[in-house]
Amino acid sequence: MTDEQDVVRWIFELMVHHLERTDERERAIHRLEVTDQGLEIVAKNGALYRVTVQRIGPPPAGKGEREMKAENAYNDVIQITVSDWNALVEACEAALNFLDYDQRKMSELRLQFPDFPWEKRAQMIKRISDQLRAAIEKIEGDVFEEVEED
Fold first, then answer.
1. Which residues of the chain fall below pLDDT 70?
2. Sign of the CA dihedral 123, 129, 132, 133?
3. pTM of the full structure
4. Which of 9, 12, 75, 112 is the most buried (most CB within 10 A)?
């Protein structure tokens, strides 16, 4: 792909190929058209959509398409909003607090119910807690490194 218009044509071809394989009664699209602004789609219900393609950055210097595809396969990036990230961290911290509370309560219940496999349960809770803490520390470290680079 050399430019945005090539990407638009590629998307158009994919959609046409899909529509050709779909029964006409099940198709949601009435018409497709490639324009200078992008791909225009007219739905069967009359709604008009425009798909535009915009390059978000120049390709890395000296890298061919094959190398870029191979590199991107290993560098999956998930982007979420800061508020969603904070909510996720809060949920993990709440889970950790609950696990800590659960361990304290477990030590109280050991005397009342000695036949229960308390050690196995304690090991499982510790493993989950350690994994959650390690994940939060690693991801927060990655986020802070990325912010410092910007």
1. 1-2, 59-78, 142-150
2. negative
3. 0.40
4. 12
pLDDT in tens, 98-128: 888 888 888 888 888 888 888 888 888 888 8
Sign of dihedral through CA atoms 108, 112, 118, 121? negative
Query: How far is residue 41's CA from residue 32's CA, in Å, rounded to a whole number?
Result: 5
**Under 8 Å CB-to-CB from 92, ≥6 apart: which residues?**
132, 135, 136
Q: Residue 11: which residues within 8 A CB-CB, separation 6 or more?
A: 39, 51, 53
CA distance between the termini of the chain: 28
Q: Which helix (H) or strand (E) holds 29?
A: strand 29-34
Contact 68, 57 (CB under 8 A): no
The rounded distance, in Å, linking the Cα atoms of 146 and 85 is: 15
Interatomic CA distance for residues 140 and 130, integer angstroms: 15
Residue 100, both tokens:
């800590």
Cα distance between residue 33 and residue 11, in whole Å = 11
The CA R_g of the chain, rounded to the nearest whole Å, is 26
Three-state DSSP class for 31? strand
